[in-house]
Structure prediction request, 260 residues.
Amino acid sequence: MKNPLVSIITPSFNSEKFIGEAIKSIQNQTYTNWELIIVDDCSSDKTVSIVSDFAQFDARIKLFQLEKNSGTGVARNKALTKAKGRYISFLDSDDLWKPMKTQKQMDFLLKNKLPFTFSFYECIDEVGIPLNKRVEAPRNLSYRQLFFCNYVGNLTGIYDANYLGKITISSIRKRQDWMLWLSILKKVKTAQPIPESLAYYRIRENSISASKLDLLKHNFAVYRTFHGFNLVVSIACMIGFLFTQLLIKPTYIKTTRPTI
Prediction:
């Protein structure tokens, strides 16, 4: 039986410094039945040229371009409409996968007949130097746990579109991955990660991860806009979020030895 096709969705915008490495990390996957769908959001650098060079020699890489700069949500949704795979996964243009990532996840999903899984991941800095930090998650992640903290790294999630359908990405410009996982957990109730690091998350100086104040604003918007809660309920949810973020989430951050 042929391995199911995995569609990998990658939005890009002025990613010339990193996208080549990201593509190579996909080409190095031991699981070979994949398609990489890159949607460029009107880059003004050499991103499109770099991707085109890769696509010229690898038919699994497909490049599409938006007509106007619209944000990662629109780019991801465009890619989703082009995806032909049964399984949908995500890799941002500056992150990396370890070679066994897709194979281990597919083996896990098919063996256990599950529609969704994710994994732990490690952090690297802007130039790729390990930060000796591994981000883990609950071994049996519930919707309630996810409601107060996004334990699922966007670069690690993979889901079965035959079971869940193609899930449209929220139009809210930030925290789209959290909303996606919440939509999935609302249906499947719990999710099990592969309890090992299978990817590298790049922390950049201008990234949302580097701005705690912006992070609070965008998380509040998830409760207010995505969930549709009123102001009082949203504030109460944020108190729960902050409690989880400050006291519980740190217990899932582990110090590691360099592996890259």
In short: The chain has one domain: 6-255. The longest strand covers residues 193-202. The chain has a mean pLDDT of 94.
